[in-house]
Amino acid sequence: MLVSKAARRYATALLESANEQGSIENTLKDIHLIKATIEGSKELRAFLKSPVVKPADKQKALASIF
Asked: What is the pLDDT along the chain (66 residues), one digit of tens a residue?
């Protein structure tokens, strides 16, 4: 899987922040949960990939799920 430079920067920043807060294990568990949830739902993947759905609506949906 190819990872964009922006995605790599965000991932690095997230893990650095988690490490500074001493919560790297919990953060990694959360990342795995999010990944499994998205991979397990064809509808959720389609919703998140849709260019028609506003980013704010995607954020609200994810906040309600997690």
From this structure: 677 999 999 999 999 999 999 999 999 999 999 999 999 999 999 999 999 999 999 999 999 999
Residue identified by tokens 């959720």 is 44
Comparing CA positions, the residue from 46, 44, 39 lying closest to residue 61 is 44
Domain parsing of the chain, residue ranges: 5-65
Distance of alpha carbon 44 from alpha carbon 14, whole angstroms: 23
| Alpha-carbon gap, residue 32 to 28, rounded angstroms | 6
Give residue for tokens 């990342």.
31
pTM of the model: 0.77
